[in-house]
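Let us work through a complete example step by step.
Step 1: write down the sequence.
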Amino acid sequence: MCAVQQILKRNKYDQTGKKTVRVFSPQGRGTLPMSKPIAPEGSPALPQSVAIPLTRAAIFLVVTAKPGAGNRGTIRSFCADLAALVRSVGFRELEGSLSCVLGFGSEAWDRLFGQPKPAELHKFHEIRAGERHAVSTPGDMLFHIRAQRMDLCFELATRIMARLGTAISPVDEVHGFRFFDSRDLIGFVDGTENPKAQEAMDVTLITDEDPAFTAGSYVIVQKYLHNLADWNKLPTEKQEHIVGRTKLTDVELDDSVKPPYAHNALTKIVEDGKEIKILRDNMPFGHAGQGEFGTYFIGYSRSPRTIEQMLQNMFVGKPAGNYDRLLDFSRAVTGNLFFVPSATFLENIQAD
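Step 2: predict the structure and record it as tokens.
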């Protein structure tokens, strides 16, 4: 076990590098910063707040960076100040568990930071298979803002946009919420098999496979829109076969009855007899008056190849043609791959 893993196993840290403690509130568990930072003994870097408990609310904000040396300087200066900005907003409601993860797209990384570059950072790979299309859309920076209350998320997003000003252009903004029983809008519990605690850190944080970017992570995001009218016409048993779990009790279907096209069958990645997991923090979203209902998929992993294989299985099929039948009712309208550097990396960035 490397030094970063040893430190992470002993202590929990927020994106500021401060040791954290568990608290209980009516909204659920969260983390609060202690008054003094804890030195990362022997650790080259501390992670951003990737592997944290689920929250009740989130904002997913994707922006593009405008060209020009002045805009580059503004963004680089902002990176070093982000942790302080999160602290200033979060301190107003300590039990709100406010956090923010910042990720960068491949082209933005080249313009902002140059070399060295994370080993597996590239533009999101578009997938086409018949009518199924995993689109690749513009996006230089991702802000994954989480809290137990939407007002905290909104306040931080507002301050981020004001701080960056004309250096960036917004591309997409989704306000997610935790639905009843942690279900998505198609009625099934989402994220049952998510890794937790130490396992969540192990599956998301880079160690010696890319030493220059220890404690970093990759994240893929997609916004899916659902045709709930058609979905709700299906009998419950058919829905369960498509998802691979029972709807009411959230029990995985036995392999003897689970179809090979079930969502959880196609998204299970096994290498050398071991399942390779990712960390999801999906959120439902929608606009009832506009008839818009969706799920914002967000998956963190040590390597983007794991999620890319999941998407290949879903859209093309395994084997080809045995695709995810959820895609008959859900359409991806965005797609991005970002690299999440360590909190230490962000705090050490100079304006220019």
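Step 3: interpret the result. Confidence is low (pLDDT under 50) at residues 1-42.
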